[in-house]
Amino acid sequence: MIKKVILTPFQKFISVESLGGILLLAATIIAFVWANSPFAAEYVALWDYKVGFSTEGFELYKPLILWINDGLMAIFFFLIGLEIKRELLIGELNSLKKIAFPLVGAIGGMLAPILFYVLLNQNTSSSHGWGIPMATDIAFSLAVLQVLGKRVPISLKVFLTAFAIVDDIGAVLVIAVFYSGDIVLNYLLLGVALLAVLYFISLRGYYSQFMLVVLALVIWFFFLKSGIHPTVAGLLIAFAVPIRQRMDTPEFLENLHEITDEIKHASKLKVPILSNEQIYLVDDLQEWVGKYQSPLQHLEHTMHGWVAYLIIPIFALANAGVQISSDTALDLFLIRNLSICLIAGNSIGITVMVLLFSKLKLIEIPHDISFIQIIGVAFLAGVGFTMAIFIAGLAFAKTPDLIDSAKIGILIGSLISAFIGFMILRFNSTSDE
User: Fold this and answer.
1) Residues 282-311: what's their mean pLDDT?
2) CA of 196: how far to CAs of 133, 236, 282, 410, in Å?
3) Which of 118, 193, 236, 410 is the most buried (most CB within 10 A)?
4) CATH of domain 2-180+229-244+294-426
5) pLDDT tens per residue, range 85-106
6) How far apart (Å, rounded) are the C-alpha atoms in residues 244 and 297?
7) What is the pLDDT of residues 369-409, one digit of tens each?
8) Alpha-carbon torsion, ordered 68, 296, 386, 44, to 10 deg
9) Per-residue pLDDT averaged across 29-44, rounded?
10) Listed residue (402, 347, 428, 387) closest to 140, CA to CA
11) pLDDT at 165
């Protein structure tokens, strides 16, 4: 019973991410078909349509695709930040022993694809794309594991999740350092100053969701104008959300008992609506529940479905529509290189690093995970999709003719990685369904 209680939140997380991965795949297929259909012009026009407002001395007027990549994806990174903070404080990354296994795998999964890319790339115009194959799409990868059901142990899913979160940290650092534009210092300092205010308020134990949203929008704007990619602001803002409850369990239970007793006393008539007294009591109950919940976990729980079911599919719909025609100039070498980096780079890098550190007794692999399953998960880590496509847009912002080729390479490499990983895990299961 205790084991079930402990695993239930994680199993819910996997369920949301898995369905999100299916929606991501569906959106990708729709985008690809749409972009190569007779309605391709409408597809391009939709995402190029400019939205925003402009006044004298101020302008925020961008194509729809940039609102998605700079705006909606900042919300996605905000959720990643919440997950990272939770995992570092109370989750699978809160101790050296827990973090060692996924950390070693993530390092191999980041360094090897970069090394492969640098060695394979012979074109100076595409040299800036080295960061593309280092990113793992957790939603699609977990969707593949979920299809396998009980054939894979829960500890393998925990490893993939923790690995992907460490990988996300590396991807965000790469975006911040290597894929941001020219820095406008004044805007950056204003954004950092407001971040410092948020952190100070959080440390003082004060939390207001309204204030968080207002300051987050201003910080996002300052980062956007500063040249630092605004998605980085999303992640940094997440670390200002407190994880500690504003009320402990004994106090909450005491108030809960008092309110429920009063509600019982107020229920004198059996009518289908609440009395005024009961309405006030229910309002009090909601207020106490809000104080008892961890602000970070409450936000994470609320946003998870929106991100997985709406934001990521919209991102895929807007970015995965690669047009292929006889007059399309594709860089076949870039397509090949990215595919190889995703497939071979991740699988070899993760497997070799885990094997090496395991032999050196520096990490401990859970007893219910076999080495062949680690190889299977290493291939699943080659599923780039969301983050890889996102980084490709940043890497080739100055050479947009390479973006379509990069997307094709990502899609090919991701699909092959997913298939190989699935087949390895499918035929090397530890238990039957």
Assistant:
1) 80
2) 33, 10, 37, 37
3) 410
4) 1.20.1530.10
5) 888 888 777 778 778 888 999 9
6) 9
7) 888 999 999 999 999 888 899 999 999 988 888 999 999 99
8) -10
9) 92
10) 387
11) 83
| Tokens coding 376 | 């299977």
CA separation for the pair 277, 392 (Å, rounded): 58
The three state secondary structure string of the chain is CHHHHHHHHHHHHHHHHHHHHHHHHHHHHHHHHHHCCCCHHHHHHHHHCEEEEEECCEEEEEEHHHHHHHHHHHHHHHHHHHHHHHHHHHCCCCCHHHHHHHHHHHHHHHHHHHHHHHHHCCCHHHHHHHHHHHCCCHHHHHHHHHHHHHHCCHHHHHHHHHHHHHHHHHHHHHHHHHCCCCCCHHHHHHHHHHHHHHHHHHHCCCCCHHHHHHHHHHHHHHHHHHCCCHHHHHHHHHCCCCCCCCCCHHHHHHHHHHHHHHHHHHCCCCCCCCCHHHHHHHHHHHHHHHHHCCHHHHHHHHHHHHHHHHHHHHHHHHHCCCCCCCCCCCCHHHHHHHHHHHHHHHHHHHHHHHHHHHHCCCCCCCCCCCHHHHHHHHHHCCCCHHHHHHHHHHHCCCCHHHHHHHHHHHHHHHHHHHHHHHHHHHCCCCCCC
pTM beyond 0.85: no
Of the chain, the end-to-end C-alpha distance in Å amounts to 21
What does the block give as tokens for 325? 């025609």
- Residue bearing tokens 């534009």: 181
Instruction: Give the model's pLDDT for residue 4.
Output: 44
Gap between the Cα atoms of 432 and 59, Å rounded: 59
Q: Can you say whether the dihedral through the CA atoms of 378, 384, 387, 391 is positive or negative?
A: positive
Q: What would the two tokens of residue 250 be?
A: 């004994």
Q: At 57, list the tokens.
A: 């001395």
